[in-house]
Amino acid sequence: MNSGPQRQADRNLQTRDAWERFAPHRRRVTDLLIGPGSKAAHPPLPRKLCVLGAGNCNDLDLAALGNMFGEIHLVDLDESALTFGIANQHLINPPRIVLHGNVDLLHGTIPPIVDCDVATSVCLLSQLLEQATKTLGLPPEDPKFAETLANVRREHLQQLLAATRPGGTALLVTDFVSSDTCPDLKSCTVEQLPRIVSIAFQFRNFFSGLHPGMISQALQTDPELAPLVADVTVTDPWLWDLGPRVYAVCGFIIRRST
Question: What Å distances lie between residue 101 and 74, 80, 207, CA to CA?
Answer without folding.
Answer: 8, 8, 28
